[in-house]
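Narrative of activities, Objective 1.

The group set out to show that a structural description can be obtained from nothing but a protein's sequence at a throughput compatible with the screening campaign. Below is one input-output pair from the validation batch, recorded exactly as produced.
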Amino acid sequence: QVQLVESGGGLVQPGGSLRLSCAASGSIFSINAMGWYRQAPGKQRELVATITSGGSTNYADSLKGRFTISRDNAKNTVYLQMNKLKPEDTAVYYCNAETGEWDIATMTLRDYWGQGTQVTVSS
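Output recorded for this entry:
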């Protein structure tokens, strides 16, 4: 089992910044990619950003220029630097890790999710 522990969420004023962290621990063989997703009240979960072990990144188009994802492979930790935050960024942010483990039950690479951390942008 892999556990993902998120931290860094909280309350911030519009225009402010937050840095989220997510550390993976447990029985880890290989993590191919890690990422951040978010879910606002009444809305579907959406992609924020992902990063591979090689450093390739992918962002939601609307967030490019404000959010930056980074990764420390040695620590199995992913970060999300969020700048110029807006009230519409308010959501629960979830960390995700795609591992190199093959899940025979689902015939996919096994992925894991954190419990989520609340980010609230309000004046």
